[in-house]
């Protein structure tokens, strides 16, 4: 989990058992259990998945109670673990994307998460099939109209407090609140009610990477037992619910789920990260009407004061290099002011340099410029553009592609606002080569590095079961 999130939590003396010994089933036993789990999943009619911090450790996010977990180290008086990358740049891992495939195949009916990292939502699990019991560090909600806002930055508060932003609905405008619970906060009924409903309906609740110690969330899987359902637990440590489970697997979650996906002859899909940004150009005629004063800003779609966590710097150049000098914008806000002639037309070329941790170095945007501000606005099919960007990233095995998704003209202020979507990372998974000893060997595409080859999507064998 985010170290910042752990530091924001109120102090509590009893955080449950921490630092327990990790257990590993022998390889032949593990394989046998994976095969049993695959059969259970295939026969299930209403599969519910219940996840904890253990599914995100391979994404570079420390857990809480493991041997090197946040609370384990705190109790031992040791320094906190270092995350391998900023929290906002963490991407869904092998297990997250395998669950997406199982949901698309109609096998998973509902996902319940205790994590606040937001990776399930980013992976592609539909919001209506997801309960985030303890909140989402990247999600704000309007307490008035119940609209949710997913951010590309970590919301600054926890404990259901007001943030610095307001609802975008002009008829509302209420102050937004974070969604992450503190210790004393009750589980929200919006998340708890559907989670409880689906656990009661479930014939299988699959618990992945959770110690099942935090109440009342940890008791949700037990609700399937009253209707004759089964509990399966995949975790490296013992849990208080092991005795109630039909199957307990001690192994890396990624290893287990990759094995199940293979046995069911499914394919773990790549993860393509798409981020959004705005380019805002404002023009005004000088007092003597001889020049155009204009301002260019590269900004967050979440507001002018919001940071762009995935952009490190912006380089600006022009098609007419003899007249206009290039500029380097090294700090946020990325803002450039220039003066040109009203009759001139040229092209602005922006090179947006991505932050460390992104899968490529930059993206390029070309913008035609003249003093004729269009009064037209239009919005393109965002879902279709996202699909096109994902397909292109996967097919070309690289990222950095961008597309315009919306253009808004504000004639009163001679301003045009252009919203863009850009592919900032691509992550693929090789389930065939993953091993119990080195679960983190997941193949990423970074600056065009090689990615794993997959079976042809057109050739899917029949399930072994």
From TrEMBL:
Every Deacetylase sirtuin-type domain range? 27-269
Task: Give the required cofactors.
Answer: Zn(2+)
Keywords, ordered alphabetically: Metal-binding, NAD, Nucleus, Transferase, Zinc
Main localisation, per the record?
nucleus
Catalyses which reaction(s): N(6)-acetyl-L-lysyl-[protein] + NAD(+) + H2O = 2''-O-acetyl-ADP-D-ribose + nicotinamide + L-lysyl-[protein]
Q: Give the highest taxon in the source lineage.
A: Eukaryota
Binding of Zn(2+): at which residues?
142, 145, 167, 172
State the EC number(s). Answer: 2.3.1.286
Key word Nucleus present: yes
Pfam families in the record, alphabetically? SIR2
Enumerate the Gene3D superfamilies for this protein: 2.20.28.200, TPP-binding domain (3.40.50.1220)
Give the UniProt entry's GO cellular component terms.
nucleus
Where along the chain is the active site annotated? 134
Composition-biased stretches, type Basic residues, lie in 451-465
- Indicate where this protein resides in the cell: Nucleus
Named from the GO MF annotations, one term is: transcription corepressor activity
- Catalytic EC class: transferase
State the Gene Ontology BP annotations.
negative regulation of transcription by RNA polymerase II
Task: Extract the ranges annotated as region (Disordered).
Answer: 445-465
State the family it belongs to. Belongs to the sirtuin family. Class IV subfamily.
Protein name per UniProt: NAD-dependent protein deacetylase SRT1
Q: Which organism is it from?
A: Tripterygium wilfordii (Thunder God vine)
- What is this organism's lineage? Eukaryota, Viridiplantae, Streptophyta, Embryophyta, Tracheophyta
């Amino acid at each position: 989990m985010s170290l910042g999130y752990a530091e924001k939590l109120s102090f509590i003396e009893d955080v449950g058992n921490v630092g327990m010994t990790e257990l590993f089933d022998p390889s032949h036993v593990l394989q046998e259990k994976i095969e049993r789990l695959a059969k259970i999943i295939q026969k299930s009619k209403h599969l519910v998945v219940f996840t904890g911090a253990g599914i995100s450790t391979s994404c570079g996010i420390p857990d809480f109670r493991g041997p090197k977990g946040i609370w384990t180290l705190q109790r031992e008086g040791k320094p906190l673990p270092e995350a391998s990358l900023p929290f906002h740049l963490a991407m869904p891992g092998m297990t997250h994307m395998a669950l997406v495939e199982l949901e698309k195949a109609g096998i998973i009916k509902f996902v319940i998460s205790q994590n606040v990292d937001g990776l399930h939502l980013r992976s592609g699990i539909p919001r209506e099939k997801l309960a985030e019991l303890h909140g989402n560090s990247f999600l704000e909600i309007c307490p008035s109209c119940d609209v949710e806002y997913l951010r590309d930055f970590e919301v600054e508060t926890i404990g259901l407090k007001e943030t610095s932003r307001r609802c975008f609905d002009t008829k509302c405008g209420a102050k937004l609140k974070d969604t992450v619970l503190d210790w004393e906060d009750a589980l929200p009924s919006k998340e708890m009610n559907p989670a409880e409903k689906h656990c009661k309906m479930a014939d299988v609740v699959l618990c992945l990477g959770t110690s099942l110690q935090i109440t009342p969330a940890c008791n949700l899987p037990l609700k399937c037992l009253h209707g004759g359902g089964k509990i399966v637990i995949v975790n490296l440590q013992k849990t208080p619910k092991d005795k109630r489970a039909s199957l307990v697997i001690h192994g890396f979650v990624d290893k287990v789920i990759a094995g199940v996906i293979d046995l069911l002859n499914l394919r773990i899909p790549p993860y393509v990260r798409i981020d959004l940004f705005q380019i805002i150009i404002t023009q005004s005629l000088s007092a003597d009407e001889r020049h155009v004063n204009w301002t260019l800003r590269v900004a967050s779609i979440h507001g002018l004061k919001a940071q762009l966590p995935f952009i490190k710097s912006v380089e600006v150049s022009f098609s007419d290099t003899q007249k206009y000098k290039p500029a380097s914008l090294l700090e946020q806000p990325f803002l450039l002011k220039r003066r040109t002639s009203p009759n001139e037309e040229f092209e602005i070329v922006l090179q947006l340099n991505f932050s460390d941790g992104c899968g490529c170095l930059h993206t390029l945007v070309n913008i035609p410029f003249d003093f004729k501000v269009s009064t037209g606005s239009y919005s393109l099919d965002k879902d279709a553009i996202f699909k096109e960007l994902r397909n292109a990233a996967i097919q070309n095995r690289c990222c950095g592609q961008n597309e315009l998704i919306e253009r808004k003209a504000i004639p009163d202020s001679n301003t045009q606002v252009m919203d863009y979507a850009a592919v900032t990372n691509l992550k693929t998974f090789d389930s065939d080569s993953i091993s119990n000893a080195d679960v983190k060997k997941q193949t990423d595409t970074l600056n065009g590095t090689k990615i794993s080859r997959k079976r042809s999507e057109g050739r899917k064998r029949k399930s072994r079961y």
